Amino acid sequence: MNKIRIGTRGSALALAQAKLAAAALEKKGYATELVVVRTRGDENLQKSLSDIGRGAFTDVFSQILSRGEIDVAVHSAKDLPTTEEKDAFFCLPRGDARDVLVFSGEVKRIGTGSPRRAAGALHLFPQAEILPVRGNVDTRLRKLAAGEYDALVLAAAGLSRLGLLQGDRVQFENHAFGCRFFSPQECVPAACQGIIALEGGAGECVNDPAARRAALIERRAQRALDGDCSGGAGAYFDGTFLFVQREGKTARLIFRGEETFSSLSELL
């Protein structure tokens, strides 16, 4: 049997997600091999994600797939460009979509590179200073431990997949940080947050229909809001309600198909 070659970034979180995809494929009877790829987002850690743009961590994989060097690419679905032609991906079952405030003590300086997360954090801590932060989860948590920040806003799914989230605490190396989950009303998750995307036909056999439906609805909502993962827009579908956020304003609607999308811009 030929191995399914799985393209992935080399960060701890990317590898953890790729291993989840490998386990799902192996459960279907396929052999797998991980192929680590470096992206332009990995190359440039000085600029903010807002400056680099969406696709910084994913665009190179499309080229490698087209050349036949890998059979499937594994991404955090929220990192994919929001254009309609990029909707052709498959999904593993969704993890926790919420954001988490991870803190070391009194919250005065909050690290995040996301205007969406900044808006949610300032809603809870209006006097706090928002500071930019880049790097993978480990890098950010080391900066928190070193006192560069009092708190960070991170994705619950990523912390969980790295084995760092333990109830209401985040355990990292010899540090135990407090954590506070944001509800979707307080900080609407980024579109597709918590969803692992598989780009390439080999992902079809492990596709989760509920996660894929949510992903397509949230991406469609994000396009209606003219937003991307580096901006202030958020979109989350829980199976009944669509939560949306733009420039700090949030709303919740019963999802009614296309008519829901047409009302978003007016609503926000």
From TrEMBL:
Residues 4-200 form the Porphobilinogen deaminase N-terminal domain. GO terms for biological process: heme biosynthetic process. GO terms for cellular component: cytoplasm. Its EC number is 2.5.1.61. It is an enzyme of class 2 (transferase). It catalyses: 4 porphobilinogen + H2O = hydroxymethylbilane + 4 NH4(+). One of its GO terms (molecular function) is hydroxymethylbilane synthase activity. Signal peptide: none annotated. Keywords: Porphyrin biosynthesis, Transferase. Belongs to the HMBS family. Tetrapolymerization of the monopyrrole PBG into the hydroxymethylbilane pre-uroporphyrinogen in several discrete steps. PANTHER family: PORPHOBILINOGEN DEAMINASE. This is Hydroxymethylbilane synthase. The gene is hemC.
